[in-house]
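--- STAGE predict ---
source: upstream dedup step, 1 unique chain passed
mode: sequence only
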Amino acid sequence: MNSNDDPNYSPLRDVAQSPEATARYLADVQRVLLDIGKNLETLAHETRVHLRDTHVEGDRWYHARLRAMPVEKALGSVLKNLNNLTVGLEKSAYKRRAHDEVVVNTAQGRKEKELERQRKKNPQLLQAAPNPPQQGSQSQNVGYGGPTSLYDMGRESA
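--- STAGE serialize ---
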């Protein structure tokens, strides 16, 4: 399809429908942003050096540094946001792939749940457990007697 056939055509629609294409696209965007980040880091360093070397007559040694701090902070904030953006792009690619895996596994999970429900509704007949031996024929274990109460224990248990 192209823009001539569909007035609502978007080239990113095809990318959004495939996790591999989404990952490739986000990796390309991330690569561009990382290149921009390198340039911004260089700019921030050069700006810092220039602004801290700019002294006005009557300045104390720290005045140039104080004047440079807001600019340095703004550039640092931009770099921090850029790094967060690149991390977010990477995370988005992983989440997109995980979404497709969940979609694929959902049908299988539903079938398994339905089978489990059927097993619970129609349990298979289990073999009956063997009957316990009768009271009279029960062999006594040495050292163990029948159930007794606390009052029957006597002094030897204390």
